[in-house]
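User: I'm writing a short methods note and want a consistent example. For ABC transporter domain-containing protein, I'll paste the sequence; you return only the structure tokens, no commentary, since I'll be parsing the reply automatically.
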Amino acid sequence: MVLPPTTPQSISDLQLLTALPEAEASLLDPRIQVEENEENKNEIAKEDEQNNAFEKATQKTENKEKHARDAAACKHIEKRVKEEAREREEKQRRDEEEKERKDKDEVTNKANSFFEPEPPGMIAGVRVQELVKVFPNTYKPAVDRMNITFYEGQITAFLGHNGAGKTTTLSIITGLYPPTHGTVFVRGRDIQTHMDTIRQSLGMCPQHNILFQHLTVAEHILFYAQLKGKSKEQAEKEMEDMLGDVGIPQKRDEEAQYLSGGMQRKLSVALAFVGEAKVVVLDEPTSGVDPYSRRSIWDLLLKYRQGNELGVGDGRTIILSTHHMDEADLLGDRIAIISQGKLYCSGSPVFLKNCFGTGFYLTMVRRMRNIKDPGRKETVSAHDSYLYPAAFPL
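Assistant:
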């Protein structure tokens, strides 16, 4: 029997026919079925494991995303809380600054009301700017941010109690102490850079007499005049004029050690004007003198104020420190009141009296003793010197 030629289709059919008996045989074999069940179980377990792993990964991702969202929300809340706290602090700071500014303006306005405006047309002889002096081993400044101007042709009374800072300020002006902060301009020159030039036109009477005990009155005047650069002839002429102005021509040949306390003080004050000094600093010039000498010193200062007697020109800048209010009221064209190193007010006597009161007169009546007529009385009238009570803080 001859078979027909085979084709691919016929071969596949043949293989299928051949494989059918084998498939039927496998279905009937229990071992083959068990193996197939095991394979199915393994596949199912593997799929379950993959599903569990996928679910865990998904859950983990979701948890991470949730944590990230929660963290972002917390950061946002924290940022907002910080911003609100910063806004509150900023508002509180602005409110405090505004309150401080208002308080400062109020204090400034109140303080400015105690300072008379600068007179027009006046020439500044000495200008103190932001002056501070702190001595070593101390915490409180002796002079605290002082600003004041002293004018030519005027006597400025520097009024304050003992320890107020008057002497310290005058010592800085004359170059005895260096300033801790700020500076002083004397006739336009800075004391920190031009003190040698300033001393040529500067005169000073310290708080205590500094006299040569074995020099006569005339020799003192001649010595200081020549020390200021005067010739012998100029010094002798100035000596003669000053002896007459001071009122002690009869004492010209008397040594300083034999002069009375009042005479020594008058000589010390006069020496401050020697050499045509244009800026004169007097530290309590009438301290410890009798009433007559005090009055004569006042007359001398009023006479030398303009400076024309000794050819100084337009006038001297005279700075006078005192703790006597009547003296400041009488001599001062302007009065500056200092307390605890601070300047509290400055102006003319009329201006300060308008600010703090005009003073008053006190009349006392007392009975005279050891007089036959017991009904006789004596009336004493005196001017109360406590003119500016509100200028000194307690």
